[in-house]
Amino acid sequence: MPEIEVFAPAKVNLALHVTGQRADGYHLLDSLVAFAPAGDRLRFAPAEAMVLKVSGPEARGVPEGPENLVLKAAALYGPGPAAAIHLDKCLPAASGIGGGSSDAAAALRAMARLRAVPLATGPAVVNLGADVPMCLDPRPARTRGIGEELTPVRLPPLPAVLVNPRVEVATPAVFKALVCKDNAPMDEIPAFADAAACIAWLARQRNDLQAPAVALAPVIAEVLAALEALPGCLLARMSGSGATCFGLFESDAAAAAAQERLATTTPAWWSAHGPLGDQAEAAAPRFI
Ligand code: C5P
């Protein structure tokens, strides 16, 4: 069995409308997601039993036991050849950019390759987390249902900065604080001629979880204001249930300069920059 490496990119909700609630409490969403060049890395080496080691800049507090989504995802394939997994954690946990979901999706891709079996799909994957299905093939998509109904969308690369103020926001608490759970879906998505047209369309959409998240963690409003004040920022919005926010910029150079500026003015905040879009190729399992 060869050793393989997988990339788990950050997921960004460019827009997220909450359109209803199911009887089981889960919310119905209409969201446009894209993926960032920032992400976690996972390595799978042949071993006697499934084990997980976590290191890296964001490893603190990430469990290495069976409660980690990576091991839960690997367990979906049942008994068989095992792997020692190393997770290099670069994305902040519980931050609205799907780090745990993307790690689980990466583990599903890697284990399918290791065992030479088809990629897991269906309800078992959704049960790992509502964001796991969209992370399996990290390309831009419109996501509906609780996140499991996927329609591919063509997006131009969007120069972006991601910023997390290092507060953890619990997703259930944000949904609970949401007043209206029956909002209009997103507008129909046109074919975008360029990034400017896409950003103009996005400006007319929303993240319905932003206001309740700001109420729970007011520092999110500071992040959005800091992004909006940076030269070349065309749109600032929160991703998922927060607290990570993204700024979309007029160019890659403006985004890079903005992140550099933030690293100086607010060094305690986590940040990354790069174009949002299709990360499927980067995420594909690679033999090393
Ligand atoms: O599926 P996941 O474990 O990521 O969801 C965490 C929590 O977020 C759920 O228990 C639920 O409270 C909330 N959630 C929701 N509607 C969704 C996704 C998540 O209410 N579509």
From TrEMBL:
* HAMAP family (UniProt xref): IspE
* Pathway annotation from the record: Isoprenoid biosynthesis; isopentenyl diphosphate biosynthesis via DXP pathway; isopentenyl diphosphate from 1-deoxy-D-xylulose 5-phosphate: step 3/6
Superkingdom, taxonomy of origin: Bacteria
- Job of this protein: Catalyzes the phosphorylation of the position 2 hydroxy group of 4-diphosphocytidyl-2C-methyl-D-erythritol.
What name has this protein been given in UniProt?
4-diphosphocytidyl-2-C-methyl-D-erythritol kinase
Name the gene that codes for it: ispE
- Which species does the entry assign this protein to? Rhodobacter lacus
Q: What is its EC number?
A: 2.7.1.148
What are the residue boundaries of the GHMP kinase C-terminal domain, all occurrences included? Answer: 199-263
**UniProt keyword 4Fe-4S, yes or no:** no
Q: Where is the signal peptide?
A: none
InterPro entries in UniProt: GHMP_kinase_C_dom, GHMP_kinase_C_sf, GHMP_kinase_N_dom, IspE, Ribosomal_Su5_D2-typ_SF, Ribsml_uS5_D2-typ_fold_subgr
Q: Which family does it belong to?
A: Belongs to the GHMP kinase family. IspE subfamily.
Q: Which residues of this UniProt protein bind ATP?
A: 92-102
Q: Entry's Pfam families?
A: GHMP_kinases_C (PF08544), GHMP_kinases_N (PF00288)
Span of domain GHMP kinase N-terminal: 68-121
Q: Does the keyword ATP-binding apply?
A: yes
Active-site residues (renumbered): 11, 131
Please list the GO terms describing molecular function.
Answer: 4-(cytidine 5'-diphospho)-2-C-methyl-D-erythritol kinase activity
Q: Which UniProt keywords apply?
A: ATP-binding, Isoprene biosynthesis, Kinase, Nucleotide-binding, Transferase
Catalytic reaction equation(s): 4-CDP-2-C-methyl-D-erythritol + ATP = 4-CDP-2-C-methyl-D-erythritol 2-phosphate + ADP + H(+)
